[in-house]
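ARCHIVE CARD
SHELF: 3
SLOT: left
DATA:
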Amino acid sequence: MNKFSLVLLLALLVLAGCQLKPMVPARTQIAFMTDRDGNYEVYLMERDGSRPVNLTQNESNDGVPVWSPVARSLSFITTRDGENRLSIYRMDLDGKNQTNLTKELAVDGVPPTWSPTGEWLAFGAGGEEDPEVYVVDAAGENVINLTNNPAVDNFSTWSPDGQTILFSSDRDGVVNIYAIGVQGGEARALTGPDTASGRPSWSPDGSKITFMTDRDAGDVEIYMMDPDGGNVSRLTNQPGFDGFPVWSPDGQKIAFVSARDGNAEIYVMNADGSGQVNLTNSPSQESVQGDLAWSPDGNQILFQSDFDGNMDVFVMNADGSNPKNLTNHPALDVASVWVR
């Protein structure tokens, strides 16, 4: 056997070994807030609900966790800097290195959200008198007021490339959706001006934005538009509330909350609005609450519900099958997010 044949044989053996080696899936966990210890804390549990661990362990109230897979950090809102004041902290996944990111700035209760790049965290501050949209870097050293307007401005979502922020504002008289660059500048209206719109959700590829609006005689429905506000189309058309759209990771499906059956349910539809299906089918006296989130692999949907008599964190398959109570605790368990 010549040298070339020997090298080729060794290469084939290495490739065979790589092919035979089992693929280990990335570990996916779930963070949530709970008052099971007498005050609100941030917990982390496995995907199946096992091994819940208290991450914050503080006498103050800590909650509303938000995960950044890029920064490898959880942010959360806390009252540890004053009972009547909210601050944003970040911590490692094991609860270590808890750091105040907003310092002297009192923030609003709207959940802060990490940028897709992991460089920034967007949040609201200013209270009811002058709410503004801010961003802060991951170290808490650079805080920027993006909106700086006397109107009511509330953060909504990041673009997939992390360069644009959508927010809601009543600066033109009615609450509508606006876009602004991460470095600030002039905000531009995407919806309005005569009817209200909000809760935008960007498609994973950045080509479309879904949102909820009352432009149909006050009946809230879900619409879709291009990133510049053009090419608007209607996705839902049923009596009763339809809102809070959330795209699947592959951009093929949109989950949303609907009251068309008399109580809040989770529905799913194709990205063009077709094939609308009730996933939860809960009894009329019970309801699905917020915190709707697709798993990173798109196979499951995380939500919270009082199906079992008190508020717990649930998960179900993306087709609505196999719903499972993950927390199953007499405490209030809410604000759940995927961690991967």
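SLOT: right
DATA:
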Amino acid sequence: MKGILGRKVGMTHLYNESGEAVPVTVIEAGPCYVTQIKSVNIDGYDAIQIGFDEVAERKLTKGEMGHLRKAEAPSLRHLRELRGSNLPNVALGDVIKADIFSEGETVDVTGISKGKGFAGAVKRHNFAGGPKTHGQSDRHRATGSRGAGTSPGHTWPGAKAPGRMGNEQVTVQNLKIALVDAERNLIAVKGAVPGTRTGLVFIRPAKKA
């Protein structure tokens, strides 16, 4: 399985051949460095570890720097493993760029969604709320009853309720690549991807294409 780490730049639009505006998300994909190659004989499984986002050495621990020096890679902030049987044929220290994907290819993009803080059930789970009239002065955004009374006499685990919203890993599947700019390491995918601008994302071939 091939894949690449990148950073969300933002959204814009491109024009297709028929002149229609297509909304796209621009991602700075790579360059990523191969920092470790794992095998079944030594590690118990096949995988390739890639690193992304160069930073100053003082921002990494000595253990992290020693690990990266083995691959003769620069100081990198993010590391990620690519597991699977169909791994690309690469060597330690090789550079992976945006050109591993091509225009028209379908991909899955994983990122951390925007954190919304503590949210009520209406915003978090699209609850309808209570009636707005007939004496309802302060209950029109309340959750209402979420469990039975006598039996079982408690709320079932996992019931939808107010709580922290967002700030979790989200994968958007089957996004079509609209543009690949290998010189500037940019990939534009049709539609939106999770996360804020400058947020870390991972791009891989679509599993359900």
